[in-house]
Amino acid sequence: MLGLLFALYIYFSIHLKTKLLNIKTNLMEAGYRNLFDEEIGQMVHQGCSSTDWNLIKVSTDFIPDNIQNCKFSGHIRLNSFTGYVNLVGGITFKTGIYNAWLHNCEVGKNALIHNVRSYIANYKIEEGVVIHNITTMAVDGESAFGNGVQVEAINEGGGRDIPIYDYLSAHVAYIMSLYRHRPKLVTALKKMVFDYADFVKSNQGVIGAGSKILNCNTVLNVKTGAATTIDGTKKLKNGTINSNFEAPVTIGEGVIMENFIVSSGSIITDATLVSNCFIGQGCFLDKHYSAVNSLFFANCQGFHGEACSIFAGPYTVTHHKSTLLEPK
Fold first, then answer.
1. Alpha-carbon distance 160 to 178, whole Å?
2. Which of 65, 89, 180, 229 is exposed most, by the fewest CB atoms within 10 A?
């Protein structure tokens, strides 16, 4: 019964999202135009260049005043930039694009992109996003953004691996890892997860509306939901941050994460290291915590110590460097 319900959920989710995507794409095509010659001239005067100006499409209300010292390559979509953003320290900044190289990007209304040391490639940047003082943000080839990554939880030597995906629950993970006496069930569940991972694969990442990406080094093959804050991270690679306005996610200073999925309402900060992990809703990893091949479900907390191949059910808490957690 669980497997059937899961299969129906995945099936209808995929088909509904496909229809909505097609509708949204058609609407987007209708709302864009080519740059006028006067606009190209103004942008060149403001220090901008493009490998092909014909590949840049803009919204009907676009004004080029706030596009300065930028390089564009590939297919570009720009919206209007007429608002203001308040930065830390009470600084007010006009929205727009300043000192950046964009390749195959779409930038939403009233976003701010400022001081990109290298480039941004293959991203849809939604409305109200702030990207300030970063090095590189790119999607390289097709990516499932952490979906389908095999996490070797419970047994460090493998054999109970669990493929993670955006909607992983403790119940489904428990069945996939500990019901090895039901091989057909486990195989069917894993196939559904891999089918979902194939569905979400894309060569374009998304930065959700209202997100802030500040003072970061490398963001590679990462997708974020709305209201995500990424501030001072060292490296994020191959992952999804499922943030939303009701339960935003914060990724803080010194964090390095690779092959991950972070659920809504979680906070990961203070030089935490994460590799091959699923982090559930409302989790808090802090104070130099380190996690490898582990699953953390709702409301877990980890401080100071480390986790290796841990299956941490809801409300698991560790606050000591010497803690050894063993699955029972």
1. 7
2. 89
* Number of structural domains the chain divides into: 2
> Stretch 53-58: mean pLDDT, rounded?
97
Boundary (domain end) residue, out of 92, 126, 160 = 126
Domain membership flag for residue 11: no
Q: Which alpha helices (H) appear in 207-311, and where do they start and end? A: none
| Cα separations in angstroms, 141 against 12, 184, 246, 314 | 27, 33, 32, 35
Tokens standing for 206? 């998304």
The b/e string for 310-324 (b: 16+ C-beta within 10 A; e otherwise) is bbbbeebebeeeeee
Question: Which of 81-95, 202-216, 248-262, 312-326 is least confident?
Answer: 312-326
Span 74-124, pLDDT tens digits: 999 999 999 999 988 889 999 999 999 999 999 999 999 999 999 999 999
Amino acid 147 reads N
CATH number at residue 295: 2.160.10
- 262 & 304 share domain: yes
The CA distance from 186 to 180, in Å, is: 7
Residue for token digits 């080029």?
A: 64
SS3 call for 132: strand
State the virtual CA torsion across 164, 166, 169, 172 in degrees, nearest 10: -50
- For 191, other C-beta atoms within 10 Å of its C-beta total 12
Task: Indicate the residue among 74, 91, 126 that finishes a domain.
Answer: 126
Same domain, 40 and 171: no
Tokens of 254: 């010194």
Contacts (Cβ under 8 Å, ≥6 apart) of 233: 216, 217, 219, 251, 252, 253, 254, 255, 256, 257
Write down how long the chain is: 328
Cβ neighbours, 10 Å, residue 281: 18
Calculate Rg over the CA atoms of the chain.
Answer: 21
